[in-house]
C-alpha cells in the first residue's frame, strides 16, 4: 500500500509549481466557471467552502505533477490573475506548467487580450474562461469590491483538498 498525504489548503495559500502532463484532457470549463463564481460569492464570512480534490505526486524535479484537478486549478489561476488587476498584492503563490504546447501560453498571458488568435484548444478555452470571468465582474455593482471580497474568501474560506500520492 502506498502512503497518501491528505491536507486542506486555503486557495490563497496554495504554493508550488504544478506540472500538467500531456495525458490530461483539454481544459474545457464553461458553465462551471459561472457556477463557481456564484458559489464563491455566496460564502458567508465564517463559512468554509471545500472544492473537489486535486491529486498530485512529486516528480523528479520535486514539482507537483497533477494527476487530477486541472480544470479547477487552472480556473483558480485565471481568477487570481484577474483579481490581481484590481489588487496587485493578490498574486498566486502557485504556478502552472503544461507539458503540451499551451505551456508557453501562460508565460506571456495577457488577461486584457481575450481576442488573441490561437490554434491550440487549451488556449482557446483559457481565453473563454478569462472572458467569462471579465463578464461576471462587469455584472457586479463594484468590480474592485468584488475583487476584494473574492480575494478574502480565497484566503480565509475557500479550501482545496490536496491528495499527494507516491
Protein described:
The protein contains 5 helices and 6 strands, in the order ββαββαβαααβ. The chain is α/β, with parallel strands linked by helices. It has one domain. It has a 6-stranded mixed sheet with strand order 1-6-3-4-2-5. The longest helix has 19 residues.
SSE topology sketch:
Elements (H helix, E strand, L loop, with lengths): L3 E7 L5 E5 L10 H11 L7 E10 L5 E5 L1 H17 L7 E5 L4 H4 L14 H19 L3 H14 L1 E8 L1
Parallel strand pairs: 2-4, 2-5, 3-6
Antiparallel strand pairs: 1-6, 3-4
Helix pairs in contact: 2-4, 2-5
> What's the order of the H and E elements?
EEHEEHEHHHE
What would you report as the Rg, rounded to the nearest angstrom?
16 Å
Mean pLDDT: 87
Helix content: 25-40%
Order of strands, main sheet, comes to 1-6-3-4-2-5
Continuous helix count: 5
The rough form would be described as: globular
| Unreliable stretches covering 5 or more consecutive residues | none
Structural class: alpha/beta
Strand content: 15-25%
Q: How many separate structural domains?
A: 1
Amino acid at each position: 500500500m502506498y502512503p497518501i498525504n491528505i491536507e486542506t489548503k486555503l486557495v490563497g495559500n496554495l504554493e508550488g509549481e504544478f506540472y500538467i502532463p500531456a495525458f490530461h484532457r483539454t481544459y474545457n470549463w464553461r458553465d462551471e466557471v459561472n457556477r463557481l463564481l456564484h458559489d464563491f460569492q455566496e460564502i458567508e464570512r465564517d463559512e468554509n467552502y471545500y472544492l473537489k480534490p486535486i491529486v498530485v505526486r512529486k516528480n523528479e524535479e520535486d514539482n507537483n505533477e497533477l494527476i487530477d484537478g486541472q480544470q479547477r486549478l487552472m480556473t483558480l489561476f485565471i481568477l487570481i490573475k484577474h483579481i490581481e488587476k484590481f489588487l496587485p498584492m493578490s498574486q498566486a503563490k502557485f504556478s502552472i506548467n503544461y507539458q503540451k504546447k499551451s505551456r508557453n501560453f501562460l508565460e506571456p498571458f495577457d488577461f486584457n487580450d481575450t481576442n488573441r488568435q490561437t490554434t491550440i484548444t487549451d488556449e482557446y478555452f483559457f481565453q473563454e474562461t478569462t472572458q467569462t470571468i471579465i463578464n461576471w465582474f462587469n455584472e457586479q455593482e463594484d468590480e474592485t469590491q468584488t475583487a476584494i471580497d473574492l480575494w478574502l474568501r480565497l484566503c480565509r474560506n475557500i479550501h482545496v483538498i490536496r491528495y499527494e500520492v507516491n
